[in-house]
Amino acid sequence: MFGWKGKVLRVDLTSDKITTEPTTNYAPKFIGGRGIIAKVMWDEVSPEVKAFDPENRIVFATGPLTGTNTPTNGRCRIGSLAPQHPKEYPSHSGMGGHWGAELKFAGYDAVIVQGKAKKPSYVFIYDDLVEIRSASKIWGTDAIKSQKLIQDDLANDHKITGSEKPQAGRYDPRLVRSVLIGPAGENQTRVSSILHDSGDAAGQCGFGGVMGSKNLKALSIRGTGSVPVAKPKDLVESVFKARKLLRAQAKPVVPAYGGPGGIYGGDPKILTSHMKRLDGCFGCQVICRAYIAPPGITAGQAQCVQLQMYYNWEGVGPVCPPHPDFLNRPQDETSWYGVKLADEYTINSFELTGFLSYLWAAYKEGILTEENTGIPFKDFGSKEFADKLFSMIAKREGFRNEFGDLLAEGMHRAALQLKEKYGDKMWQLYEERYTAHGMRQHWFYIGSAKGPGDQTGYPNPIGQLLWATDTRDPYSNTSRNRETYGSPELCQYLYGTKDAANPFSYAGKAQAAVVSQHRAVLIDSVSACDWFFPIQTNNPLFKEEAGIKSEGTGWKEAEAEFYSLVTGINTTLDGLFTDSERVFNIERAAQVLRGRTREEDTFNEYYFTHKDRRNNAVDRPAWEKAKDDYYQIRGWDLKTGIPTREQLEKLDLKDVANKLNV
Predict the structure, then answer these.
(1) Are 174 and 220 contacting, i.e. CB atoms less than 8 angstroms apart?
(2) Which residues contact 478 (CB under 8 A, 6 or more apart)?
(3) Which residues, other chains included, contact 524 with Cβ-Cβ below 8 Å and sequence gap of 6+?
(4) Is the dihedral of CA 617, 620, 626, 627 positive or negative?
């Protein structure tokens, strides 16, 4: 095989059994990455299994482009039953950095982990050498320090250090790449992330808790191989064309500092003065973040909402202002302290923005106090406050009513219990901040928010469909559809309909949502970054010939060309969209087995009763008609939202149709 390495590693922690199986069990039919996850979860995890059961799987999967020279190929995908989801549906989360490429260099396209170890363990992969090793000495240690301890453990093992590899020289433990959990994952917190290096993370869905339930501290890898490609010379030329397009649009100057020291407001001197170097994922020309090292605080890298989490917790995105109650609070290195503390504990930073906003609002309402929570609200935003609250969540510890244990269950489950105890206001505060699937509001609207606890902006009808029909926040891999509003030409180019350009109606939005979802599966399966792909426009910021004559439109076929040249399988974007549709439908089928129907394809009631910036709430009859349009395009039953046999057989999923009994 070209692109793929040809092997999938399987680790059974219960039996200590390590085996391999051919990648052809999954690819190219399910592409890779997210597609491999979907196939494993469908085949191997029955509807009765819960997220923290030993029978659950957690899958770490790369794509055929991972480890090549294609732009932004350093990402990989992690999937399992999602502890954060109210019904624990199978889901997935992305992670950048270098771990995915290292897995490919070691000779594997994915790792499937099942069972539960008898004692804390970590898996070490060094090409053909795969071991389950004791993690007892590092269990309870934070995720950043644990990586150094794993390197020390491996450096002292003569069986490993005595080996010699002709391509890469003598073994060097400093080159080991790990994905791992801190105390939040070990204590099966439903909002625990999986950390890699000093800031890359798979945050959403709570998969760190799944690792903790398996007594799995880390997967640590060093690979000394390479990734074969079918047409290397042609690939170099294709990659150069894509890099030139990205450069022409000034993509390399995305603020490396982000967060509270950059595009999200605040004092830029705070972080830029402590920047040591630019930082980026494997195979990426953009280098969209920085490595920050304030004195006396854990060093590392972070970006986007992670960087703003402990300063601007009310907003989500660059258009949102800091909380007005804290406008006079001077910004200092405390912002970074909170960011790194969350990483050390492996608590999802995005989720923490919701926690902080919700807790402060409930405190201002006079409902939550230090006396009934143990949370020192008077210190809100300080280092001491972060120490207290983050520890409560990560360690499931509490005060009087075990409030930390409650928050560790995630905001959806916590809000349900707080509603029972303190009344409907606690649920209202939750719905103001969370959209669906127990996840924090993220681009459900577009444009500016009105203020704290009110995330309303202008309508985003494509986003409404994406949120309603997903299992998680959809804007980790479909963010660029926000850029298409107001451009009929771009919508025609990308979605096949100019109607999608109007954000104030549902016309064309079902088609745009389906195309966006297929693109998301494609990006998650081949391995690319949603921030920069698809290349939608060709409007150079600098006076430079970008190399593609397309009257403003970009190069939507780039991923398909990369895939063809890497794998040797000649295909088109439409061909890969068919593969992506197959993945999306098997994901949906797994949800259906767990009870998903049309009624769940929606979002919180808040959006039907609260007005947006144009003074309109979501129109329920119009929304239901938009769902009909979406199901019709999908080939799903209009009454139930379940894929039809005709559609499944069209996608070569007859066995799925039989199991669903449709």
Answers:
(1) no
(2) 466, 516, 517, 519, 520, 530
(3) 33, 34, 63, 77, 92, 94, 477
(4) positive
CB distance 178 to 200 below 8 Å: no
What CATH number belongs to 7-222? 3.60.9.10
Q: What pLDDT is stored for residue 5 in this prediction? A: 98
Cβ atoms of residues 199 and 127 within 8 Å: no
Beta strands in 455-586 (DSSP E): 535-537, 553-555
Domain 461-537+572-660: state its class. Answer: mainly alpha
Residues in the chain: 662
- Other C-beta atoms lying within 10 Å of the C-beta of residue 605: 12
Q: Could you state, in order of their start, the residue ranges of all structural domains in the chain? A: 7-222, 250-440, 461-537+572-660
How much of the chain, in percent, has pLDDT values that exceed 90? 74
Look at the domain 250-440 and name its fold.
Answer: 1.10.569
The span from the CA of 592 to the CA of 598, in Å, is 10
Convert the pLDDT of each residue in 62-110 to its tens digit: 999 999 999 999 999 999 999 999 999 999 999 999 999 999 999 999 9
DSSP lists the bridge partners of residue 131 as 124
Residue 203: CB atoms within 10 Å: 29
Cis peptide before 534 (omega within 30 of 0): yes
Residue 269, pLDDT above cutoff 80: no
Round to whole Å and give the CA distance between 208 and 153.
22
For residue 454, name the pLDDT band (cuts at 50, 70, 90): low
Q: Which residues have C-beta within 8 Å of that of residue 51, sequence separation ≥ 6? A: 80, 81, 82, 83, 88, 206, 209, 210, 213
DSSP calls for 138-172 = TTTS-HHHHHHHHHHHHHT-HHHHT-EETTTEE--
DSSP 31: -
How far is 74 from 102, CA to CA, in rounded Å?
A: 9
| Res. 42: pLDDT tops 60 | yes
Name the nearest CA neighbour of 191 among 414, 502, 467. Answer: 414
Contact by Cβ (8 Å): 296, 281:
no
Residue 163 has pLDDT above 90, yes or no: no
Using pLDDT thresholds of 50, 70 and 90, give the confidence band for residue 260. very low
Residue 114, strand partner residues: 12
